[in-house]
Amino acid sequence: MWVDVVLRILIGSAVVLLPIVLVATAIVLMRTQPNPDTRPRLILGSSLIASSFLGLRHLWAGSPETPALRGHAAGFIGFAIGGPLSDGLTAWIAAPLLFIGALFGLLLLTGTTVREVPDALRHIFGTRLFQRDYLEDHEYDQGCDDFAGDDADTVEVAREDFSDGYYDEVPLGPESCPPADDDVPTVPEPAVGRGRKRSPKKQDTQVLDRVVEGPYTLPSLDLLVAGDPPKKRSAANNHMAAAIGEVLTQFKVDAAVTGCTRGPTVTRYEVELGPGVKVEKITALQKNIAYAVATESVRMLAPIPGKSAVGIEVPNTDREMVRLADVLTAPSTRRDHHPLVIGLGKDIEGDFISANLAKMPHLLVAGSTGSGKSSFVNSMLISLLTRATPEEVRMILIDPKMVELTPYEGIPHLITPIITQPKKAAAALAWLVEEMEQRYQDMQASRVRHIDDFNDKVRSGAITAPLGSQRVYRPYPYVVAIVDELADLMMTARVTSRTPSCGSPRRRGQLAFIWYWPPSARRSTWSPA
């Protein structure tokens, strides 16, 4: 009995709502995983809602003065909150302030930002009243009808179908079912308010199914053309060695060409110096040697690592064609079973070179016209298609020129059709940022440091959804985004503000970005970003 008396003194008639609030709180606590990081926000939001409600109840009851009347209104707490406000600001001002305080507490409790309120209202009431970009998007779509093509629903797909981090409804096999064990840890649902997610503009947007039905078979490397056996030494190499030796004799340098290492496009000639001859005497003859071998420039390597010799690298007059099939079938490439391994080519010693995109993970490819940017990107894509299934690697291809990447339209690895409109490319990059945040939230909740560890836990059934959640956890695929003409995209779609978020070194989440464009006065080479 004394509990009821104390509660009525404190909160008045609101005591009848207390059991409902306690039951709802208990249900929420049982259905969610405890998260100490959100506890202060939840406590502050609940306190703001409760205090604002009691203050409004006090004003609604006419601001009673006696304790007996307060027991039928909002109690002492409502009097302490609503009384000073009504006396100092009048009830007409105090009531809106308390209502705003309750709304702010609701935002804190749900983890919703002010910028997300219009999207939430539009999602609840199904209206375009709060849609800020509708007119602008409508005008843009009217002007781009001729270019809609395959990517007409790119933005809708990126915003709706893949916002939860999983791309397709893949039927669960026997190995994917989590064990019926009470000790299996659960991963909480990600916070809704951390990423800005827009509702789709079209209600009839269909889910884009890009994964083939049934098991996916990797294409055979026999489809690629194999190269010819490498040349050891040709008559052109003998002529170059003689020309270099003649230059050394003319300038009275005690040195001789003792051998050469032939690569597909460059040959390195080894020059051994006589006793007491400085290396600088050889390097000072760089332009003279280039003149003697009739080439624009030569490269000096003084000394060759591991050898007592100076290397002179000269371009071959009879270059060899390096075939991608030879690179992908090389033992060094086959030993690495990672799905993001790509073939690059041959080095000067004739060894095949491959690289793992997961270790980079971002690239900036630039060069003059005809320098091989498109060939490199095509080789990279073919390498991924011959090594990875759609469940392992997914791709987003952005091609504003509409001609470079069109041969890859329709491959099952694509998350969306090839994007050709700059505005939709910006939306795809925004979705990728949200996808990275989603993966980091899942890795944090499951207490792992890399997406591979998270996938291993999902496959073993060590991660399950909370009780009552409809989410089905599946391994995350790697995501590769390739953007052609990044400079034009940054100017037309104004994606500069999104680029730092996309290009940050988040290799643990395994999203790789490849940008390539023609050079300007400030960009003339390609290098890892």
TrEMBL record:
It comes from the Bacteria. Keywords: ATP-binding, Cell cycle, Cell division, Cell membrane, Chromosome partition, DNA-binding, Membrane, Nucleotide-binding, Transmembrane, Transmembrane helix. The chain crosses the membrane at residues 6-30, 42-60, 89-109. Pfam families: FtsK_4TM, FtsK_alpha, FtsK_SpoIIIE. One of its GO terms (molecular function) is DNA binding. It is found in: Cell membrane. ATP binds at G367, S368, T369, G370, S371, G372, K373, S374. GO terms for cellular component: plasma membrane. Its main location: membrane. Residues 173-204 are annotated as: Disordered. It is a multi-pass membrane protein. Belongs to the FtsK/SpoIIIE/SftA family. Homohexamer. Forms a ring that surrounds DNA. This is DNA translocase FtsK.
